[in-house]
Amino acid sequence: MTTRSLVQRLILMSVCVLWFGLPAQAQLLGGLTPSAIADGAKVVLSARAEDAPKVTELREWQLEDRGPVQGRLVQWIGPDNWIHIEDRFQRIQSFPPRQFSESDRELIEKTLGPWRQLVTRLRQEFPIRDAGAKPWRQGDRELNNASLLSVDDDMSFWSIQQALIAIPLTSFTGEQRDLIQKRRQLLGELSVWQTQDPGVAFRAELLGEVDDTYVFGRIWKPYASYPVMARFRVRKNLLADVDRERAGGWLKSGKVKQIPGLEQSDLWCWPGRLGMLGPGKPLEIVEDEADPSQSKVSWAVPDHRPERARFRKFRIKRWESLGSFNGPSELDLRRVLFERKLHEADANVSAEKVAEIWSDQRKSLVERDPLRYLNTTVVWRLKDTDPNSRVTATLIGERHPFYVYQVGGEDVTAAVLKTELDEPWREVAEQSVQRMNEYFEAHPKAKRPSLHSEYFIVRRSHAILLFIKPLEVAGETKLKVKMAGRDTPVVLLADQLHYADAMEMNLMMLESEPGSSTKRMPEIAKASREERLQWIKLQEHFEQKTIFGLQLPSARSMEDWSVSWHQPLYQTQIGFDGVVVGKHLDSWIIRDGTVDFLIDTELMTDRSNEQASQQWQALKEQFPNQAIPISVPTLRVYGSVGKAPLPPAEDPSWSDNDEWQFTDWEGKRQSIPKAAFSHLEQLELDVQFRSESEVRRTVSTEDEYAATQKVNEFQEKLRRELEGELRNLPKPASFQTWHLADSKDHLAAHFERFDGEDVIMLSSLGVHFRIARGLFQEHALERMEELAAEFRQEGKAGRTAGLDPSTITHRAIRRADGRTTRPGTPIRANRYYIDVENEEGLLTQLSVDELHPVDGSELRAELYRREHGIEWDDQVDERLALPVTEDEIIERPATLDAEYRQRLEVLRRGFSPQWKETQLTLSPGQTVRQISVDGSCMVVTGNNPAVVDSAGKTIHRIPRQWDEQHPVYLSPDNNQLIGFESGVLTVWDLQQQTKLASYPAVKQPLVSTQSADGDRFAFATHDGSFNLLNLASMEVQRSRIELLEDERMTRELWCSSDGQNFIATSDQNMYLLKVDETTGKIANQNRLKKFPRIREMAVLDHRAWVSTVEQPWAIYFGVEEGKLVQAKRQLGIIPHWMKNVEADEGIPLIRIMGMLPGLAGSEDPYAFVSHVDFNGHPMGVVESVNCDLTGPVMIAGRGKAMVFRRGDQWIHAVAPEQINADRVLRVLAEDLIDDDRIDQLDAVFAYLRTPSIADVGEYPDELSEEFLNALYLVSQEYGWVHGGDPRIRRELWLKRAGERMPQSIVIPMLRAQYHSDLAWAARGSGFVNTVTNEGMQTYHEQLTVALNHIKPLLKKQQPATRVFSLSVSFATGLSAPKTAVGELTRRAMETPAKNSLEVHSAAVNYLLPRWHGNPGDFENYIDRVCDQLGGNDGDAMYARLIVSSARYYPSGQPASDFMRFDPDRVLRGMDAYYAKDRTSTRWFELAEKLFQREQDAERLSKLRQLVVRHRIYFGM
């Protein structure tokens, strides 16, 4: 912060202080003068402590439990109360105030006190409107008389010369943009208004008052392009008392000046069940006498757009359910409509008469439903719950100590403890109960509802509320309850409920139990319910948390020896929050929120133990009759890791793979690598583990003092033993900090060894990483050489024995400021960034400019060479900028090379999503029993058992002695049969007609399966016997599934593609089986929850997809120690078969075959075949097959073929060949540009327009258009692959390519598209009022350049489709006359471009009223061109143009209010479009939205019938 800017801010702030009317001496303490007061907004919201002024000289600060710190005090008001000190190296250090000595705290308070007071005052009183002297600036333009109103996402809203202007934040400079955000935050704090409903507040600016209402204003956007300042009224009595007084005070003091003309404001807002309702003008209420809950109100908002933007009469009419209003809001709504109706009937009616009539009307309304209208809110919140966890209910009265509610109707009543309602809601409840009591006392004949409550509302967690009816105490810690909505009782653990709710439920059960022993009842049960106020005080006590310090006890006795290898010695530097609620043996019981846990006194510092003792003593004295705690918790804090306290845990253990595992307070199993702990931490964890398991759980607590002594003695003895073992470990190297060259920074790590030009180091977390030798100072390298020599003398290559340097990929890189980056594995690089994978496996980006000039460029070159196989070349731009020589010029496009022609020939075959069917020719009595994994052959049984091909031709005869009642399989080559003979597993050679092997030990299986590769076969029996046959080795490996007692296997077994993972089911559970790759036996078994009625499953490495029968769901889950870790995912089809497969690019996918609900057994059944990734997202083209999957069906293991029965015939079907035209053209474009074969660009483009290829596409030029898209993308990526600066290289390459091929028609189209993108980048996507002058100038200049590139192509006899679409687009931006655009579209209709949706969409866009058209222009154009196309093609084009144009208009009302169209032709067009095997669902979804807006149920139903007729697949 410079002196000049500080002075300017100080002067402005003095004005603010005087404005507030505060005494100068009261604010300016500590010797400050008025000129030393800064701008309020800057002080309140200063972003960084580094920029704040330093208010003391360099001095020494005394800190408890650590040495003195030298530095200067920083004057920074941050988000916490910590003190910030800048040390001698200009680094900011932060310390809590309690850590400073008493004298230092006094100096700090004296120095910073005035500033803290000033900030607090500014936060409360800073004016709403900007009062700064400096004008706002948008770039170089000054905004005169501008007032910032609001900021929404990336748009700011201003009042400039009494007009509302929206300006993108991106158009401001960084400093101005930051200031806008800061002002927005500051003003926002003063612009939030709370209503009488405690759950409803709103943000708006106070404008004035009219009668008994306040008028507010806020930015409102009924249309994306025309935001308005909406003025609306809120009744004064609907505001909270504090805010009502605040608004009145602002108007009375003149802080907010009354804006004239507010009487004309006819928009209103009311608090409702889900927030503020409005703004809007209420029109009418439609009552539903049969069902009052269906009553609704309509309201309207007039058109606020400027006249030039109106081309249709516009209206917004919305309906809102009356149930969305709370009682007082609905009364006020009815009052507004009632008063308006009276004034319309009699304009001269007096206000007194209106009030009198409304009073009678209101009285009748309240008498009709007093509970609704006397309740301020219907949404209630309990203490210690998430803000979104609320109860929707109607308060009907109080029955001490409860409030009683009606929930979901009059049949269900529930009670809530008064003290457990959150404070604002408790106040509202008291007021509502008081009003009800007064009403029913005044109306004795009115029927008051019974206050007997069947259920009680309790908290199970911060986000879960339960409605329960306690039945009995099922145990010391269990309650048997009935839950609302469930018929059977359930058992709840008391410690799973909020402690106050658990206490109340226990109390109720004990009091209701006849003859209950007073010994069983806690002390609280003996006390009267009137003493529950004690519990309120107790809760307040629990909320007063203390920060307790942690310290490893071993550090006290071993300070003379640096035993902690990876961490410095521990002192009072770590801690945790909580409040003491009890003591158990040698441990404190701490409560943090609603979680209780234990912590050993040995783990806490002496000062913290003193604080805990004081808290415990105070708690017992203040609440002598309370049972504190209710029970001893199972969670415990077991120490720390890396100066951070571990979370409360239970069931801790060291795992076999050196991880500390524990169960957290949410019941989730967690783990921390052992390498993250220092030796001291590991020692202390062992002490805690063993004392917990060997002493604490077995010692008697009758004599608490003796028990504590016994635990302490055991821990001291164990600690001495472990410390002795620790001292005998090899002593670590004492030299642990390494000086870096050209830097003041030090690297803290252990030297491991040298490896070439790198040094391998060991980080404090036990992670090895590399760092270049040249980064260290000379004396540091000398010390490393000494350590390396010591390792060699000991016969070791380095510190860690057996370390393979080739596995060390993490690297620390030097930054430009001399520091080093966090170790990570460099993955890839481009001109600007290096992607690095950190220790957690997350990718981060390092800017090359921030790295050291040498290290960054060398690492980038190495990564670039590894990824692309070519050297990084910074001279690419220079070579591209060289003049083109005569030898490089290509006078005319070459003919297409045979190589590229052959690659394009594959496109001739096209693609059909339909599976190809072949009817099998079988003998009478024959039936298909099995299909091979590749689907080419089938096993046929009956009169003549055989293996047949897809046409039914016999390939092999099958021996007759095999058992047909047992499973049978074919080998991958279809030459071997695997089946059973006389109950014995047998393998036959079908070519030689001989037995290859028999396995008598394999029992007759209950269930069997074959892997997708065909080499492995699994057989399981009732008792869990598991046999795996490996066809490659001809061996059977036997193992067993460990079942529970009386558990039996069922007929469900699934296998992964590689045959190493299986899932089997029993009558009780589901088992994930991992088979050892070498032995073939079960190596790991996890028991999972069983899914009901499984249909099919796809098994992967550690996850699976499961299809259940009851619902069309696929469930994706991963298995971590037998737990379900993912949720359900819904599919658009009911899956019948699933398998994981490899896609073309090596991405693992799930191949799914399924049917739409309701198709099974229909006259025309069919199935979809689709692919999804592991997240359930659809991938690739969807296929279909004419098959009913609920009939006799067998699907090949690889999912590419199937055989099924249709009537009396067996049908063999194979999947179609998938030809990805986009990928073919993309790869070809990459090869042409990378190989510099630009002479072939026009040749390929011309070949794709030939009739033999063009007929494959949707319209003749579709494939050539796709090739242009691929070229454009590849030219864009050229800038990232070939070195140099990609921001200019693309333009250089396009320019050079154009100079080399002056006769090309492809290059000009690419260059035109490039300059068009530059134009829109300069202009932005907003409306014209958001575009800067510079942006608009660049926009027109670039579009002119683009048009000049395309003009010569328009002179061709038959221009390409892209020429027309670009030309019309440029005409739109350059405001070309309609005659010119009409001539372009006329010529397009004489070429293949007439069928291009892109061309006609560009023309429709030009003719929209928002651009250059008049009302009706674009509709007339659509009618004309579609009539010229005629037939199904014209209807298909009409439908797509109409549904896409409807998106430009507000979705809140029918599109027919804005545009003219024929809905029947839209429906015919959708039918015609999808009749040609179209797979895109985009047009169907747009048409569906169109008919929904029109509320055209008949046509919407007909449209949805197309889904089945044309087999439209929607995936998820």
What would your notes on this structure say?
The protein is of the alpha+beta class. Among the domains are: 3-125, SLA1 homology domain 1 (SH3 type barrels, Roll); 207-368, no CATH class; 379-521, no CATH class; 539-727, no CATH class; 737-800 and 808-872, no CATH class. Helices cover 32% and strands 26% of the residues. It has 36 helices and 74 strands. The strands form 21 sheets. Strands 21-22-23-24-25-26-27 form a seven-stranded mixed β-sheet. It has a five-stranded mixed β-sheet with strand order 28-29-30-31-32. The longest helix has 24 residues, at 102-125. The chain starts with a helix and ends in a 7-residue tail after the last helix. 33% of the residues are buried.
Helix content: 25-40%
Q: What's the total count of β strands?
A: 74
Give the low-pLDDT segments. Answer: 1-48, 121-133, 222-226, 304-315, 514-532, 558-572, 1119-1125
N-to-C CA distance: 55 Å
Biggest sheet features: 7 strands, mixed
Mean pLDDT across residues: 77
The multimeric state of the shown protein is: single chain
- Radius of gyration over C-alpha positions, nearest whole angstrom: 40 Å
Global structural class = alpha+beta
Basic shape: globular
Question: What is the number of helices?
Answer: 36
Proportion of residues in β-strands: 25-35%
Strands across the major sheet, in which order? 21-22-23-24-25-26-27
